[in-house]
Structures are given as structure tokens and as C-alpha cells.
Write a structure and sequence with these properties.
This protein is mainly α and 106 residues long. The protein has a domain at 38-91. It has helices spanning 8-32, 34-41, 43-63, 67-91. The radius of gyration is 17 Å and the shape is flat.
Length: 106
């Protein structure tokens, strides 16, 4: 880190930029991708894919420990984790849109 960033302001700016793109990717994925993939593969596959994607990113970073690998793999893992957990919990809600027969009954 000290070789790449000379000041704490540069480091803060860099990591805040990564966090911004993680949030933007999560929002885009939740709005336009998640529903289609969820209908296609189901909840079990979506939940199983999250740790697999995260593990693949971390293994790649362990093999090639550079910023070129860290920057795309870390936000992708965090985004996949965020976008799959939150909507999955709310989709089975009685107030969500969908067929009445597929909603959970209280």
C-alpha cells in the first residue's frame, strides 16, 4: 500500500471509489439482472453461487496478489453477496409483487 499510495487521502479516495462502484453495481444488478436470474436458476443456486464467486476471487488474488486482481475481484464478491442476500429475503414477503399462490402464507 505504501508503494502505491503516498498519502492517506489518496488511499481514502481510492477505496471510496471502489465502494461507490460496488454500490452502483449492486443497484444495477438488483434492478435489471437479479429477478431474471432468480426466476431462471432459483434461490438455492443463487445462494450457493455467492460463496463460490467469493472464493474464486480470493483464490485468484492469492495466486496473483496485485491491484489488477484485487480491484475487480473484491467489489465483485461484495456486490454478489449484497445483491443476492437482500432481494432474496424480500421476494418471499407477502407484500412483494408476484402470484398469490407463490407467496408465503402467514
Amino acid at each position: 500500500m505504501a508503494k502505491v499510495f503516498t498519502t492517506s487521502n489518496e488511499r481514502t479516495r481510492f477505496f471510496s471509489n471502489i465502494d461507490f462502484w460496488v454500490q452502483a453495481l449492486s443497484l444495477f444488478t438488483q434492478l435489471f439482472v437479479f429477478g431474471r436470474v432468480f426466476k431462471w436458476v432459483g434461490l438455492r443456486v443463487m445462494l450457493a453461487a455467492v460463496p463460490l464467486l467469493m472464493t474464486a476471487g480470493y483464490v485468484l488474488y492469492a495466486l496473483i496478489p496485485t491491484f489488477a486482481v484485487l480491484v475487480p475481484s473484491s467489489p465483485s464478491a461484495v456486490s454478489a453477496n449484497m445483491q443476492s442476500r437482500v432481494p432474496a429475503a424480500t421476494r418471499s414477503s407477502p407484500w412483494s409483487r408476484g402470484k398469490r399462490s407463490t407467496k408465503r402464507r402467514a
